[in-house]
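User: Let's play a game. I give you a shape written as tokens, and you guess the letters that built it. Ready? Here's round one.
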């Protein structure tokens, strides 16, 4: 009962945010993030651990500034679920500018996997794409069943086919064969199964091989994309890059390393916007100590 009431209140709040000007919503998120950062928490410790591992040459003051900025971005991204999940297609399209190195119409004439990364703007980019083009999206179900149902419904309201990871391979292959591109992200630690350790900023990171395996099984090209938050509350920019050449290879580890190297390049460009609150190094190679 309490969970249901919480979902109703949260849904009402997100709907209210969808009615406010985007700049107001963004500033509310930044403000809440600044307040929450002052409170010691597990997530704040995770952010600092990740930054220390990935940017050992940074001074403590530099990492502190980066952590503060990141916390603001993360909480802002949660608040901005309001206009993303409950705004209309026109409003969402106005918020996101698109720069694509490929002909997006062609994405429906050949099997295409759009591989994204967990920058704070990923939700906005995926939502905007779905207002213009048919697409399927792999997602990880949330622990709260009611909230998961609401998120799945709102994310798919423009026609996106939502595919849970537990059922991903069979359904994703069917979608690809039917001429619909698949969006997924494989830059989080989901455990040792179907994963390999590859360096992420020089630190061994447990990395899924799903992109390589799905591309090979579906004879699909792999196209990276990144959504970034633009300065001065101007919204977002969705950048769709050229397809990865000679991908997949015959070695899933090599493929995972290539994708991770591409991700590193983008993180260095907008470091405050990557999802440092995630325990990226939760699983460790045999013999190496835990870091969290």
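Assistant: Ready! My guess for every position:
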């Amino acid at each position: 009962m309490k969970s249901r009431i919480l979902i109703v209140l949260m849904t009402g709040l997100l709907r209210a945010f969808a009615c406010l000007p985007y700049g107001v919503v963004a500033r509310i998120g930044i403000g809440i993030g600044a307040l929450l950062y002052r409170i010691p928490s597990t997530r704040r410790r995770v952010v600092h651990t990740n930054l220390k591992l990935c940017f050992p040459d940074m001074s403590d003051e530099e990492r502190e500034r980066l952590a503060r900025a990141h916390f603001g971005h993360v909480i802002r991204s949660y608040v901005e679920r309001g206009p993303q999940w409950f705004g209309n297609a026109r409003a969402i399209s106005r918020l996101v500018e698109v720069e694509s190195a490929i002909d997006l119409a062609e994405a429906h004439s050949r099997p295409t996997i759009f591989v994204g990364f967990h920058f704070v703007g990923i939700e906005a980019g995926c939502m905007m794409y779905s207002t213009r083009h048919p697409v399927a999206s792999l997602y990880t179900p949330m622990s709260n069943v009611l909230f998961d149902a609401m998120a799945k419904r709102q994310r798919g309201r423009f026609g996106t086919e939502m595919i849970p990871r537990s059922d991903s391979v069979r359904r994703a292959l069917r979608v690809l064969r039917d001429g619909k591109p698949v969006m997924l992200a494989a830059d989080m630690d989901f455990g040792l199964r179907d994963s390999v350790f590859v360096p992420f900023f020089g630190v061994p990171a447990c990395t899924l091989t799903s992109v390589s395996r799905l591309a090979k099984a579906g004879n699909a090209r792999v196209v990276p994309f990144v959504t970034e938050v633009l300065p001065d509350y101007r919204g977002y920019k969705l950048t769709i890059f050229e397809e990865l050449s000679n991908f997949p290879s015959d070695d899933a580890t090599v493929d995972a390393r290539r994708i991770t190297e591409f991700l590193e390049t983008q993180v260095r460009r907008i470091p405050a916007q990557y999802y440092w609150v995630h325990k990226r190094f939760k699983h460790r190679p045999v013999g190496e100590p835990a870091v969290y």
